[in-house]
Write a structure and sequence with these properties.
Helices cover 49% and strands 15% of the residues. The protein is of the alpha/beta class. It is elongated and about 120 Å long. The relative contact order is 0.08. This is PD-(D/E)XK nuclease family protein. Pfam families: PDDEXK_1 (PF12705). It comes from Bizionia hallyeonensis.
Length: 919
Amino acid sequence: MTTFIHDVLADLDKKQVDISNITLILPSKRAGVFLKHELSTSLLQPIFSPTILSIEEFVEELSQLKAISNTELLFEFYETYLQVHNTKNPDSFDTFSKWAQILLQDFNEIDRYLIPQEKIFDYLSAIKEINHWSVDTNQTDFIKNYLVFWKRLKIYYNQLTENLVAKKKGYQGLIYREAVESIQNYIEVNPEKHHVFLGFNALNKAEETIIQELLENSHADIYWDIDDAFFENKNHDASLFIRQHKKNWTYFETNSMNWIADNYTKPKDISVIGVPKNVGQAKCIGNILKKLHKENNTLNNTAVVLGEESLLLPVLNSIPESINALNITMGLPLKSIPLATLFEQLFFIHKKETNDFYFKDVIKLLSHQFISPLLQSGTSNDLQKVVQIIESNNLIYISLTRLTALAPQHEGLFLLLFGNWNNNPSIALTSCQALILKIKTHLEQHKKENILALEHLFKFNTLFNELTLLDNQYKHLKDITSLFSVYKELLGSETLDFKGEPLEGLQIMGMLESRVLDFETIIISSVNEGILPSGKSNNSFIPFDVKLENKLPTYKEKDAVYTYHFYRLLQRAKRVFIIYNTEIDALKGGEKSRFITQLDLENIHKIKHTIAVPDIAMDANLNEIVIAKNDDVLNQIKTYAARGFSPSALTSYIRNPIDFYFQKVLKIKEHDDVEETVAANTLGTVIHNTLEDFYKPFEGQQITWEQVAEMKPKINATVTKHFKDLYKEGDITKGKNLIVFEIAKRYISNFLDLEVVDLKDGNILEIIAIELNNTAEIQIPELDFPVRITGKVDRVDKRNGIIRIIDYKSGRVDPAKVQITNWDDLTTDYDKYSKSFQVLTYAYLMHAEKPFTEPVEAGIISFKNLSAGFLKFQKKQSGSRDKEALISNEILADYEVQLKQLILEICNQKVDFIEKKIS
């Protein structure tokens, strides 16, 4: 394969052009590196290097203006805006920046395409007046201001241009317009200078004018890179612009066109691969590279072209370790670097002026990978201690003072992170730069391991230095919100550039970086509609019809640019892998690109289509956790059995054996998060503890309705006490927590009311025990170790001569949940029978300690279903409506059978712990 650059140099050599004395102009700086390399390999003797420039560098030289960054341009434009704006209430910088960005893009296009400014701005203003019926004398203030804005566009443009030219600065469009005005003078001053333009396609009006002037004055040659297959097809967008140049440029009326090549129709191996998701595409690229590297040790003529810049990191992580020679042309966007999230979180918490910070924001910030290492004191992890205190005390909002009290040794760091910025950008910038220096000092202690992280810090330090310079020079940043918007603007445009050998090994680049370059093997990712091509977007103040009228580019021209770049990559390539995302995305479509369909319809090459499907066995039990009971596990079970199985432990096994394994065998406790809203178990515990306080003094005696009534005035104080004991410093004075607090009081009040009514009706109530602990050893001959059962009953009382074993539930329980028909279901269906199992366990334990001599009932009082009263356990007779409510010896014997079977299963080494899928 011969490259386009090689062919151009060969043609210049054939024409005996003195290459040392010409200026070679290319679409990008990147292409210049390859041009120099190709030149060095084709020379037979040493020469002085020719001048090699990108088109941007060339027009800068012509215009004598220095290119200005987008961010600085925004500040300059705001200066102009304030200069022109003569009303009392100009937009703030933050508001201004939202519409100014779009307007600057329009100014840029107007200049690049040499549109007469007076004409287009007057035209736009007239259109808006017609749209708003400005002849109506009763215009609202809003419409008046709106129309004034459109009339001022011309003034904004003229004043901005004047200000920038006076400072010898310019944005791209202005530089182009000034370059056009200077081209005649340039030709006169440099009569001997010859220029060669190569690899261009879509040209704006300014570029066309400059190149045509040089061509017609015999000061230039131009080499196009287009294939005959596209050029001869009048409907093919890859040649849209070059066909227009051939037709419209007077130079080509008498001069031939260099060149129309014939490479595309040559045999090519083209594979189209559909892969789900971006990560899938990255893995696919890694697999292709691994295969290519096995076939050919060097990948010097291979390029990976990324349709989306966000794929860079996943692709880098997917490159096989065997590939050592690698060059990355595209920069890694700073917004993709982990350090960006740190400053985004900082700005987020400081945008509101407050002295108390939400606990999740605090933990998120302190847990950041660049901050958490700073919270180490020797071998002690102070972050863990701080988080533990926050969670155990339910600290929803935390002040800097409280945080410092938790870990005073880190006062300096906390001050940098949570010190009040006072809505002052200067303080914010100083704090951010000081934080960067603090992180840098820490990282430099282990410099070799932190080289990349230090590079990240350097780039962010540079960014904040630039923001500080802009703030000092222009003084437009009045608050943190405006600073954050400028920070985001800068962050979006800055990249972390990679250093590598640009001419060796695998090349990774974006679509625009591929201009003028040719490779034998090409891998193109993200070939989806909305990405390649980018699709319709009209981020502009200029309406579509006005763009057409003034020959400004629309989505049609932008699509043609992508078409050219895509097909140009394929022109000389021998092997092509085209990868697209098969997953539909709400924002970016998901359809494969029209380019793929076009390749099929052309029928020039045989296209191999593949859908990459992850190799996953379709087994419903594939992700099921299975834990075998080895000797260590069995020993833990024996230890737990000797201590005592509780009803909740046994029902957790019924619900999901894996939960039992984690909680009882491995002793893994659930993580205690901060309760922003009072949890259901906290509510239940408060109710239990309050009723224990009320009824415990009456154990062993009858209780009267007057004694119960006397409990009611104590509800508020007692509930508050228990909430504070459990909920620590959590706030129960507002929001959902206040509602839960009131619910707890209402539940207890309603319960006491029912007790009072019941006692007033003449019923006799004796409190036997409150929060009664019971333990019993159960004899299981099949096991050679002791097994105990333990349980705590909320309340045992005697009502009208019947003993009641009562379990309180703060949630809703229906009568059906404490009824059973088939004993075999008791230890298999958790949802239906866990409540029955629990109350039967309490009855079994009490009977084991002291056999029942009086009638006994066991059941539940549901505070969410108090109207149902005491919900008794009942054994329904199969095929009959009869129900047995009293806990008889027969019921306890049947329960014991099920209990022993369940314990035998838990202790059986041959029965694995198998995860149940819980819906």
